[in-house]
Amino acid sequence: MASSTTIVGLLLMALLLFTPVALAANMVVEVPQVLFYQEDLCVMVLYHGSDSIYLVSSQHEGLTLRTSEYADAVNFSGQLLIAPSEFKEAQYKAALAFFSSKPFTVKVFLADRSLKPLSKIGVYKCPGNVTIQFVIPIAVRGRVASNTVEEFLPGFTIPYLPAWELAIYAAVFPLFTVAAFLDLGDMKRSEKRKRWTKLDSFALVVRYLFYACFFSFLLILLASFCFLVYGVATRTGAGFSLTDLIISFSLFAGFATIYLIAKWRGWYDLIDEE
Fold first, then answer.
1. Cα–Cα distance, 3 to 34 (Å, whole number)
2. Distance (Å, rounded) from C-alpha 30 to C-alpha 133?
3. DSSP readout, 13-81?
4. What is the pTM of this model?
């Protein structure tokens, strides 16, 4: 059962939050957006002071919050963990309110589930006798699941591709596909047309798709590196998803394998013939 001191503190904070006379003594802190780019991540909020710190958090659908506090004769410390209930594409805003009679410090980190900080979002020095409201925007770059697939393969999910990666594929593949068919038309109109077969057409299209996959992978690798640098520079937790690179590299490796086999089998002898 909560102690009388805790109950009094929470009531006092509620009074500070909702009484018009006291609204001027409130402060609102907008924390930079935290990006969840892979599973097993959480927002870790650490608060520390020399007197009791009272924390109130609103109910957030889609978010799981877990609090732990400890105190001794000198210090009071607490920890709040915020994580999505499900890893899927979503936007959230976690609203928290702190109050203490003495100054205290709040630190916000992006951490893994072992509570190892991955990046620092912000450190905030809070005055005493003032209600501090924190708003933490959270963006999840998750994965979406196909209900049809899950019905037959429970637990199987289809990886989510972000819009910027889809834009790269949408820009690169049509260009190389058009180039492949233009080159194919030239080949069929050349002196090689009498010896041209469907296998040669297939080999030519595979070559251009291999080029498209390779070029797309390079662009995605460059974009992922830029996201990583941006996340470190701004301390927003932005970064690249390893899934994005794996999918792109797998596509490139698949076509590279087919292309090398075709090269080894001599399918390009007629195409590369001078």
1. 34
2. 9
3. HHHHHH-GGGGGG-EEEEPPPEEE-SSSEEEEEEEEESS-EEEEE---TTEEEEEEEEE-SS-EEEEEE
4. 0.47
* Alpha carbons 23 and 21: distance in angstroms, whole number: 6
Buried b (16+ CB within 10 A) or exposed e, 141-163: bbbebeeeeeeeeeeeeeebbbe
Q: Quick one: tokens of 13?
A: 């904070």
Look up residue 5 and give its two tokens.
């001191």
Q: What is the pLDDT of residue 221?
A: 87
Instruction: Look at residues 239, 268, 214, 266 and name the one whose alpha carbon lies nearest to residue 38.
Output: 239
In whole angstroms, what is the distance from residue 24 CA to residue 146 CA? Answer: 49
Q: Residues near 234 by Cβ (< 8 Å), separated by ≥ 6? A: 32
Give 22-65 pLDDT, tens digit per residue: 334 568 888 888 888 777 788 999 999 998 899 888 777 888 88
- Contact at 8 Å (CB) between 40 and 81? no
Q: Over the range 233-268, which residues count as b (16 or more CB within 10 Å of their CB) and which as e?
A: eebbbbbbbebbeebbeebbeebeebbeebeeeebb
Q: Where are the alpha helices (DSSP H) in the chain?
A: 4-18, 147-152, 163-189, 198-234, 242-264
Q: What are phi and psi of 263, to 5 degrees?
A: -65, -45
The CA distance from 102 to 92, in Å, is 31
53-57 and 90-100 strand pairing = antiparallel
Amino acid at 78: G
Who contacts 180 (Cβ-Cβ below 8 Å, separation ≥6)?
204, 205, 207, 208, 209
What mean pLDDT do residues 113-134 have?
A: 85
- 211: exposed, middle or buried (C-beta count within 10 Å: 0-12, 13-18, 19+)? middle
